Amino acid sequence: MIQELTDAVYHNEYRALEPESEDYIMFVKGRSVLLKKSMLIESNAIEYPRYKDVINAMANDGSLSQSAIKYIYLFQIETKNGTLKFFLGESDAFLKFIPDAYSYEPQNIFREKKPDFLAFAGVTACQLANWYASTRFCGACGMPLEHDKKERMMRCPKCNAMYYPKISPAVIVAVTDRDRIIMTKYAGRDYTKYALIAGFAEIGETIEETVRREVMEEVGIKVKNIRYYKSQPWSFTDTMLFGFFCELDGDDTIRLDEEELSSGEWLYRDEIPTEYDGISLTNEMIMRFKNGDVRNFTNFEF
Ligand SMILES: [Zn+2]
User: Fold this and answer.
1) Nearest-angstrom CA–CA distance, 118 and 121
2) What fold does the segment set 8-134 form as a domain?
3) 203 C-alpha to ligand 1 centroid (Å)
């Protein structure tokens, strides 16, 4: 999955640091991130500007003062070759000023490009950048917010309201019945491959109740034996995904919610067309079922 890094460890804790020469600076515009173009073309690899590159680019241009960019510490990633620190570069001016060697690339590029720790850094930085961009004023009193010194939180200096990063919990559900699984396709989305039943948790329900409700709403089926599988931070949509396997309880007739889904059907293992992609929890769950890993399980190995 996209968060499972090869020989690298992600450290999320907020630290009140200033960038240094070799640190990465993430410039984000909407859901696009500034990347080094030459690296993408020559080696199909991701590379971001480092602090020294930003300083040089601005010195060469001369129209921007160094203080035009505000830096916010994001996270660090420990690799075999040392620890990499990532900062958000916040600047309206810099969004228009793009050095020749760089271009803004949409976040979907991180589903394919390597190395994996830089791809994960890109999509995570994108989520954080969007949260910072939309968390600038207090929703209660309208004052500009200030960053807390100790944790990743924006605080109102007037009424003391606190704002934490937005993470929406959601479920991915594999409904099985012996050698069959319910596979779905979403209605009205770009993503046209098979998926599993999915939906957001509502206020006042447990995550297990979300599983039952979403399955009932989307395909009109009752389930039993709900078992937690794994979770996945899915920064593409500000979501925390919780994967569950469960079994059909009673009538197997699918009654489709046609606003949400374009199709929902029982497929036998050998009818599943999905191939391994190494990115999403949905894909991993489908592949485990397809390969027969969940035939008689009660517990999973994490
Ligand atoms: Zn306030």
Assistant:
1) 5
2) Nucleoside Triphosphate Pyrophosphohydrolase (3.90.79)
3) 24
Q: How far is the CA of 127 from the centre of ligand 1 (A)?
A: 24
Sequential DSSP letters for 159-221: T--EE----EEEEEEEEEETTEEEEEEESSSS--S-B-EEEEPPTT--HHHHHHHHHHHHH--
Q: How far is the CA of 143 from the centre of ligand 1 (A)?
A: 6
Q: Cβ contacts of residue 86 below 8 Å, gap of 6+?
A: 23, 24, 26, 48, 74, 75, 76, 77, 121, 125
**Domain 168-290 in the same topology as domain 8-134:** yes
d(CA 222, CA 276): 29
pTM score = 0.88
How deeply is 6 buried, as exposed, middle or buried, from its count of CB atoms within 10 A (0-12, 13-18, 19+)? exposed
pLDDT tens by residue, 209-251? 999 999 999 999 999 999 999 999 999 999 999 999 999 999 9
- C-alpha to C-alpha distances, 54 to 59, 115, 188, nearest whole angstrom: 9, 22, 41
- Two tokens at 91? 């600047």
| Mean pLDDT score across all residues of the chain | 90
Q: How far is the CA of 129 from the centre of ligand 1 (A)?
A: 21
Task: Give the integer Cα–Cα distance in Å for 102 and 38.
Answer: 8
- Whole-number Å distance, alpha carbon 150 to ligand 1 midpoint, is 19
Class of domain 168-290: alpha beta
State yes or no: pLDDT of 8 exceeds 80. Answer: yes
